[in-house]
Design goal:
six-stranded antiparallel β-sheet, alpha+beta, Conserved hypothetical protein from pyrococcus furiosus pfu- 392566-001, domain 2, 24 strands, 23% strand, 13 helices, globular
Length: 448
Amino acid sequence: MKSAEDRLAALGTKIPDILLPRKHIDLSTWAIIACDQFTQDRDFWDNLGRTIGSKPSLLPMIFPEVYLEDPDKNERILKIRQAMQEAIQSDYFDEPIHGLMYIERSTPYHFKRRGLVLALDLERYDWQSEKRPLIRATEGTVKERLPPRIEIRRGAPLESPHIIVLIDDPSRRLVEGFGECIKNRQPRYSTTLLANAGTIEGWTFESEDDFTYLADNLERLVREAIERDGRSSPGEEPFLYAVGDGNHSLATAKAVWEEYKSIHGNDRDIMNHPARYALVEIENIYDKGIDFEPIHRIIFGTTLHEIEDLLQKKLSAQIEPISNIEDLMEELKKSKQGTIQYGLVSSSGLRLLQISGTAVATVPLQPVLDSFLEENKGRVSIDYIHGDRETAELALVEKNRVALLLPPVGKEDLFRTVGKSGPLPRKSFSMGEGIEKRFYLECRRLFV
């Protein structure tokens, strides 16, 4: 009879050895929000550094993307490696926990969001759109964005996840089932989070019965996935896991693993190397604490007139002036059958755009923007921003920048849509507001 961990291995899932800080370490400054947030707000990250000071923290062990274009990138990566080694050699960590972490997170927008920290097998994942593995990307991956991330992960002694992977569990029995077991149990950790981001608590599950419960429910979800999507074609696996947040981070982990395999392919135990796996948090797409939010675009080096003209020519957009931000945001929330709406915000004015279509808003838009950026390389650039008001304010403060606000995104058909048509265009949605993103907290040894 197979053990629970053997059954989990067949499902691309591994029970990790999780490192948690010792109880004397202040988790409120240890835990740090995902590195791909607040990418236009240096003050946020600079102030974070001043707040934390010399306290034990994951901040020196991550590379906030706001600094990616700075000239000291190589020195920063070296310091990240050194900070990881110092953390390992110090008394920061307790003994590893061979088990799962059940997580409950509160945010300024939701009372509770549940998750389960475990490891996924990168052999069962591929981000390429033509592939149909067990673990799939939900959004397009930009290969050009991977090299700096690969440099950071390649040879890193530790990993800490900000990746959130979704399961399609309408009966709410897997993650929520672990939540039913924590009554009258003290959490392993509990802390408030920096930047008024809410709180987080975590409980350990380390028994064979816990692992069996996980295997039973993942096998159930595989059966349900086959019923949902029909019989798989040759080479296609059931669609069990969908990457919700951190598409590029998981693609980076895959690239580093494939690179390591190519170099050390003759090693007898290579398939047992920790780099084969990535630590992630699993969440149920039906959790009431998960909202899908649009990820907006800001185009730098352009004007409102130029973007209006572009979208009229390429998408036959109908354009209407809007007097204030509140009215524009209200209009974007209105669903109109057969129509996709966008908002334009600049210091020169506000516009509501409408085009014909029923697809996710990024499907017609992103190819147009990509072509425009390529044709005007060196003059214009783009960034992707979370939060309606944050994006609008960034566009209003200076000339020669235009924000594209996208409408709300539904989450109910994500598995069916991605399973049928492949990944959506990159940055199609965000799981909640920027401040709700996963915080780095748990760690795992990666390259010894």
